[in-house]
Amino acid sequence: MQSCRLLGAGPQLSTFCVLQKLSGTMFILCMVIMGASAFTVQPEQHTVAARNCQFRGKHFKKYYRVEGEPVVLRCPQARSWLQTSASSHFNTTWHKNDSGRMVPGEEEKRLWVQDGALWILPALQRDSGAYVCTVRNASYCDEMSIELSVLENTEASLPFTSYLQIVTLSTLGLLSCPELSEFTRNKTGLNVQWYKDSVLLDQDNRKFLSLRGTTRLFIYNVSVEDAGYYSCGLPFSHNGTRYNITRNIKVRVNQKEEEPIPVIVSPHQTILASLGSRLTIPCKVFLGVGIKSTSTVWWTANDTIIDSAYPGGRVTEGLEKEYSENNENYIEVPLVFDPVIKEDLKTDFKCIVTNRMSLQTLRTTVKEASTFSWGIALAPLSLVFLVLGGIYMYRWCKHRPEKGYSLTTVKTDHEDF
Amino acid sequence: MAVSFALPWSQDGNLKVPLSYLISLILLLFHSEAACGPTQRRPYKMQTFRIWDVNQKVFYLSNNQLVAGYLQAANAKLEEKMNVELTESRGGMFLGIHEGKLWLACVKSGDKITLQLEVRTCFRYWTTIKTQQNGPTTSFESAAYPGWFLCTESEGDGPVSLTNKPGNATKVTQFYFHVEQ
């Protein structure tokens, strides 16, 4: 069982173990081996010591390479291992997971280990598979597997081998030929060739500029047509044989992100409402003229998102509505109270809008529509004043023509005196 | 430095500092690992951005470390998008990854400022990043430690870190930062 468990490190090997268990003869054989190993204690301990290597699993990144080209696999755990014990000397070995054979094997001249990295030159489709890298020194050992897929360099393999790179419309685009550092280290005068849809982009091309000595390609004034599959190639010589290292790139053209800062048009700073009634406060945001916006609008109550502030749902955010008025785009999110309670009068409500890198807020408070309203109080009062004023005017007007008369009357009265 | 720790609260525009926050502030002053007030919630919604450096390297997680490198189409699902929560101060933001489960924080260690991934208990000032738009590219500066910029290695896959020498040829501090389309 011990041997099975040890073998069970890889998924394929564990299947092998299961098969062993199913097969009676194989099981007996396994027991015999175990029995035999029990008598040879010393070699067993040695094997365990050799195998007692922490298996850190499969590296999350798979490598897709093109047939006939040089491939370099570097121990994925070496980087972190080196960081933790940089001064320790360590020994790196490689073996192929399916065959268990050590690489480089005696029969294979195409594979060798150089500075801890596994070189395959040229890579063939049959080299595909999982490679286990073991890093050890006197006191420490760990291993990790890395998956390699060697594919034919055809259009059908592009979806697997290509790297996505993004350029922006109407700007200077920059592509980078990826994962060449193993071949470009300590080298000057690099000559990376660039292709678009298999057509060489030569130096005379005004649209593209490949900077000699770098792995970069500039695309002047990026247009929609610049999207598509590119490939870059680096010539590489080994023992007098010339090879090419190809990387495929899928270029996507993004729209330029130029968006005006949105403006919150409403609500007002204070909203009047009567307690117990239903209230809707719309937050209306002007997004700009004739553009597609990435704005998001939402409400907060005392700096808490509405859903969290009112789990009971008394106050909710209504449905977001996007609309156009004379080519001007607006977005509206209502805040719905059902009903308004006293607590809302002390709550700080904010409408927030963000787009890309801007954030705008507008604060609003709910005020109770008071039962003693000055408007209501003033209406009868003004009526009274109006009536009184009317009476006075009436009397004054009535009195005026009578004035002469009354004077005469007075006079008369006076005469009477 | 102690004064700037008080800023997360004023940044939220919350001028009335409740007692619980004052207690947390005092705790912070004495012990920087103290948690924020239990009721503190960020009111802002996350936006998702795609980030890549000028060498077209994207971010991914390797052994719980944020790494910038090249990913082939079949590995593209490993790419980490940036979760952004803007602050009310212009250009200020919190940057997270992994659907907002981990947040970038600038932490002092000796003379250097290092980048760490924090599981968020609350928003802290040293997790605030200031952005600066330089034409089509953006640079990210630590708000707590001005002069320290988010950077990637110019050669090979390497950890995303902070540098106070943004002009250094071995480091890349310019990024493309687009809303996920």
UniProtKB/TrEMBL annotation, chain A:
Transmembrane segments annotated in the record for this chain: 372-394
Cellular localisation: Cell membrane; Membrane; Secreted
Claim: Protein transport is one of the keywords in the record: no
Predominant localisation class: membrane
All copies of domain Ig-like, residue ranges: 43-149, 159-232, 262-367
Gene Ontology cellular-component annotations: extracellular region; plasma membrane
Membrane topology per record: Single-pass type I membrane protein
Family: Belongs to the interleukin-1 receptor family.
Known function: Non-signaling receptor for IL1A, IL1B and IL1RN. Reduces IL1B activities. Serves as a decoy receptor by competitive binding to IL1B and preventing its binding to IL1R1. Also modulates cellular response through non-signaling association with IL1RAP after binding to IL1B. IL1R2 (membrane and secreted forms) preferentially binds IL1B and poorly IL1A and IL1RN. The secreted IL1R2 recruits secreted IL1RAP with high affinity; this complex formation may be the dominant mechanism for neutralization of IL1B by secreted/soluble receptors.
Name this protein carries in UniProt: Interleukin-1 receptor type 2
Gene source species: Trichechus manatus latirostris
Lineage: Eukaryota, Metazoa, Chordata, Craniata, Vertebrata
Automatic annotation (TrEMBL), chain B:
A Pfam short name: IL1
InterPro entries, per database record: IL-1_CS, IL-1_fam, IL-1RA/IL-36, IL1/FGF
GO MF term list: cytokine activity; interleukin-1 receptor antagonist activity; interleukin-1 receptor binding
Compartmental location: Secreted
Coiled-coil annotated residue ranges, if any: none
Signal peptide: 1-34
Swiss-Prot/TrEMBL GO biological process terms: inflammatory response to antigenic stimulus; negative regulation of interleukin-1-mediated signaling pathway
Keyword field: Disulfide bond, Glycoprotein, Receptor, Secreted, Signal
SUPFAM superfamilies, sorted: Cytokine
Keyword Signal: yes
Taxonomic superkingdom: Eukaryota
Cellular component, GO annotation: extracellular space
Similarity comment: family membership: Belongs to the IL-1 family.
Role this protein plays: Anti-inflammatory antagonist of interleukin-1 family of proinflammatory cytokines such as interleukin-1beta/IL1B and interleukin-1alpha/IL1A. Protects from immune dysregulation and uncontrolled systemic inflammation triggered by IL1 for a range of innate stimulatory agents such as pathogens.
Protein name, UniProt field: Interleukin-1 receptor antagonist protein
Protein source organism: Trichechus manatus latirostris
Organism lineage: Eukaryota, Metazoa, Chordata, Craniata, Vertebrata
